[in-house]
Amino acid sequence: MNAFANENAVTDAAGAAPAFPIPAGVFAETVTDVQHYTDTLFRFRMTRPAGFRFRSGEFVMIGLPNADKPVYRAYSIASPSWDEELEFFSIKVPNGPLTEHLQKIKVGDTVLMRKKSTGTLVHDALLPGKRLYLFSTGTGIAPFASIIRDPETYDKFETVILTQTCRTTAELAYGKELVAAIRADELMSEFVGDKLHLHATATRDGETRGERITTLIESGRLFEDLGLPPLDPDTDRAMICGSMEMLKDTAALMEKFGLVEGSNAQPATYVVERAFVG
Ligand SMILES: Cc1cc2nc3c(=O)[nH]c(=O)nc-3n(C[C@H](O)[C@H](O)[C@H](O)COP(=O)(O)OP(=O)(O)OC[C@H]3O[C@@H](n4cnc5c(N)ncnc54)[C@H](O)[C@@H]3O)c2cc1C
Ligand SMILES: NC(=O)c1ccc[n+]([C@@H]2O[C@H](COP(=O)([O-])OP(=O)(O)OC[C@H]3O[C@@H](n4cnc5c(N)ncnc54)[C@H](OP(=O)(O)O)[C@@H]3O)[C@@H](O)[C@H]2O)c1
C-alpha cells in the first residue's frame, strides 16, 4: 500500500497542511489542552492510548506528524499513572527541531508517541525512606509533577519536598499552580494531606533573588527554610532532574551527605535523570 494512502494519515488543526502517514508502531494522540506560561515554557495535555501503562516519573519519545520521518525527543510524562490523559511540560527552543513546531500545537492536533516508557526517576529505584526530596531546575520539574500526584508517593514517604529553581519568577508558575491545584483537589488533598512542601526559587529576578539549590543545600539554608534536619542517608531519599551541570553538582552533594546512586536494577538512596541534552 502506498504509505500516503494510509487511512491514519492526519492533517493539521485547520485541515490544510499536507497529510503525512502515521508511522508504524507509534501512538497518534489528540491534544486536549494547551497552556503557555512564558515565551519559553508551555504545557499540553493529550488523550492517553488505551492500554498504555507507565510508572509515574518515566519518560517517552514524542514527535509530530509533520514529516515522513518525524523528529522524536524524550519527554517526561508530567501526569500521574492514574490520569486518563497524558500531560507534558515543555521548553520552546528557538529553531529547535521539535519544539519550534511543538510550541504551535492546538487542541485537536495530533502528537505521536512511541510505545515504550522508561526512566530512573521511579519509586522502584529507591529504597524505602521517611522523606523524599525532588530536586529540579527548569523543565526538570516535569517527572516530579507526575510523582507528586501519585498516591504511592505518600504511602511510601511521610514528607515530600519538591524544589524548583529557575532563572525567573515567571518560569516557576507551572510548579506553583500544580501544587495549588493538588491542595484544592478533594481527592488528591486526601492522600497528599500536609505532606507536600514546595520550595521554589528564581536566581535572576524577584524581590529576594534566590540562590541555586546546590548553594541552598551546602549552606543549610534549604533545611532551615523547611524546618527539617540536614540530609541523612538513613531517612532521606532524593530524585534529581535538571541540566547535566546541575545533576553533576547536586549528585556530588548527595554523595557528600552519604547517599548512594540507585537504579531500577539496584535501588539505593538517590537517582538522577537529565532534563535535556546539552
Ligand atoms: C530523559 C529526558 C527527558 C526529557 N524531558 C523533557 C521534558 O519533560 N520537557 C522538555 O521540555 N524537555 C525534555 N527533554 C528535552 C527534550 O528531549 C528536547 O531536547 C526538547 O524538547 C527540545 O527539542 P528540540 O528538538 O526543539 O531541540 P534540541 O535539539 O533537542 O535541543 C536544542 C538545545 O536546547 C536546549 N534544551 C533542550 N531541551 C531543553 C529543556 N527542556 N530545558 C532547557 N533547555 C533545553 C539544550 O541546550 C539543547 O542542546 C528531555 C530530555 C531527556 C534526555
Ligand atoms: N531560561 C532562560 O531565560 C534562558 C535564556 C537564554 C538562554 N537560555 C538557555 O537555555 C538553556 C536552559 O536554560 P534554563 O534556564 O532552562 O536552564 P539552566 O540554565 O540550567 O538554569 C535553570 C536554573 O538552574 C540553575 N542552575 C544552573 N546550573 C546549575 C548547577 N550546576 N547547579 C545548580 N543549579 C544550577 C540556574 O541558576 P543560575 O541563574 O545561577 O545559572 C537557574 O536558576 C541553557 O542552554 C541556556 O543558556 C535560557
From TrEMBL:
Pfam families: FAD_binding_6 (PF00970), NAD_binding_1 (PF00175)
Keywords: FAD, Flavoprotein, NADP, Nucleotide-binding, Oxidoreductase
One GO BP annotation of this record: heme catabolic process
Keyword Nucleotide-binding: yes
InterPro entries: Cbr1-like_FAD-bd_dom (IPR008333), FAD-bd_FR_type (IPR017927), FNR_bac (IPR033892), FNR_nucleotide-bd (IPR039261), FNR_type-1 (IPR051930), OxRdtase_FAD/NAD-bd (IPR001433), Riboflavin_synthase-like_b-brl (IPR017938)
Reaction(s) catalysed by this chain's protein: 2 reduced [2Fe-2S]-[ferredoxin] + NADP(+) + H(+) = 2 oxidized [2Fe-2S]-[ferredoxin] + NADPH
EC number assigned by the record: 1.18.1.2
Stretches assigned to the FAD-binding FR-type domain: 24-124
Cofactor(s) the protein needs: FAD
Gene Ontology terms for molecular function: ferredoxin-NADP+ reductase activity; nucleotide binding
Leader peptide range in chain numbering: none
Similarity-based family: Belongs to the ferredoxin--NADP reductase type 1 family.
PANTHER family named among the record's database cross-references: FLAVODOXIN_FERREDOXIN--NADP REDUCTASE, OXIDOREDUCTASE FAD/NAD(P)-BINDING DOMAIN PROTEIN
Protein name, UniProt field: ferredoxin--NADP(+) reductase
